[in-house]
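ok so i was messing around last nite and threw this chain in just to see what happens. nothing serious, just curious
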Amino acid sequence: MILDFLEILNDYPAVLLLIIIAIATMGGGIPPILERRRRRGLENAISEVLELLSDNIGAGEGIQQGLARVAEVRNDLFGKLIGDAMQASKATSFNAAMAEMAVKSRSKQVQRVVNLILTSLEGDAPMQDVLFNMSQEYSRLNKLMNKRDTELQSSAFLIIFFVGLMLPAIIAFMIGIFAPKSSGMVVDDLNTIMAYFFGAATGISVLISGRMLGRMMSWFWYVPSFALLSMLVYILGFNLIS
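result:
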């Protein structure tokens, strides 16, 4: 069966090349995915961290004591970053340690929160109220962002599914039914054109979906894989039907 499969692909040299490219680029999209998951994990925890810090300050603790207590309570990455910042503040200044933590987070939301906290401290603002209000705002913000991301992901995968799987399968079925190999009709050139067309269309749909989600560069790595899958669906679908 494998030999029959390879024999079919001999008529499509670009597919054989695309298999190599797809294997080579498949791992390129993993680091951006992991980085985004790390960043969103920090951003989704902002509200809880600010609310806990507000409670600690309301209990009579200072900002540094409150942050140290937060680091003790939280065992996630956010807690580790805060704990490292509190350790660093013993050797440097509190502001410098917090700024370093913001840079290490690699998150614009976390960096904005740190800047707001430092600015509020310099202005002698009521920190308990400031932190509690910030926690509520960031809770609503991240809920909206997560809802938007979920909805866009559904739309993006639907685009890829219909363009990359459903459409080539339907066209392969129609050509296989009306122009089977047993009829003697020569459709090799047509099949080559259709296979390359579906590969290109699927690659474009992947880029469009990535652009919708704001992750086009990370999705770019998977263009060869999805294009290859679409071409194989058409080629194998035609051969099975005819």
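not much to say yet. The chain has a mean pLDDT of 90.
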